[in-house]
Structures are given as C-alpha cells and as structure tokens.
C-alpha cells in the first residue's frame, strides 16, 4: 500500500512537542525523502548527523555527509548535497528536535519524541531499516525485532549485518566516525547485494522469523 503524499520533508505533518533550538536553527529535522520508500535510513539526532540549519537529515556534519555518500553511491540520492533528490529512500532521526549547541538529548527528551518517530516509521512502512550508530540501532532492535537479547551492542560486529525483524529487515550501520578501513565498502556491498535480491519478500519472511 502506498501513502497518498508527495511531500519530501515532513510528509506526515508532524509537530514537535517542544522548541529548544538555537536561534537560526530549525526547530526539528523531520523525515525527508520518498514516503513510499523501501529503504529507511535512521540517524540519531541533528547535533551529530546534521540538518540543524538545512532541515535535511545527514547534511552539514562529517558523519552526515559520510552516510549521504553511501546513499548516493547506491543510487538513492542525486542533486544538491543539502537538498538531495531521493528515490526509494527516506531519511529520519530517532530524535528529530534540535537542541542548544547540538547537545546530546537526555533520556527524557528521547522518550518525548519516541511516539513521533514510531508513527513516522510505521506510516512509511519500509522493507529495510538502516539504523546508524549505537543509539538508533538499539532502539530499532528493541522496538521492531524480537532479537535484541541475542546481540551485544557491538557496532563493529553488527555493521552491515542483516537481522530479521517484525515485518522489517534491519541492517545496522556503524557510526561513521568509528569506521575502520573497509567499513564503508562493506555496507555499500551489502546493500548492493540486497538491492539485487528480492528484498521485498522481507515482509513475509520477517513476520514469521522475527
């Protein structure tokens, strides 16, 4: 089933519950891309993965640009770096709101925004979830699979590993600042192989296995 929306940014019209942004920053960095996408890249928060002034996830910061470069190599993104045109891909954050000086959200602030992220993720209903970094990976594995207990949160070993979830395939991405030699090539290769497969069977398989 496809969503009836052609909006690229904040396709479902979410309204954040608070504004703690610095002057000149966006109140929040909403989901961005194709709301009918099969691939959903999930970052942590704007202060680390970017978008505080552009309003677009995975822009501005070194970590954000590294993730976007992978998305581009896979053919999901084209056009300007700060306002890419996305095909079959959507980008969003576990914590969408911007915070003073890019500080890390508190546990309470993450909890405040959990329902907004969950509503957006389920409305998009992608086949493949790509959480970036430990916080996003932990949340996705806990919430959308039954397999979190099987894994230590060791991103070096989870990087580019396919994990079956409840209606989703999860492929974690190690935080770009921690990439070792070969990590970028590994995630690109894994996703290229996935694109060449019948990954849309994920829905049926994951429901029974996850």
TrEMBL record:
Segments for region (Disordered): 1-20
Keywords (A to Z) from UniProt: 4Fe-4S, DNA damage, DNA repair, Hydrolase, Iron, Iron-sulfur, Metal-binding
Gene Ontology MF term list: 4 iron, 4 sulfur cluster binding; deaminated base DNA N-glycosylase activity; metal ion binding
Pfam families: UDG (PF03167)
Biased composition (Polar residues): 1-11
GO process annotations (BP): DNA repair
Domain of life: Archaea
Every Uracil-DNA glycosylase-like domain range: 30-177
UniProt name for this protein: Uracil-DNA glycosylase-like domain-containing protein
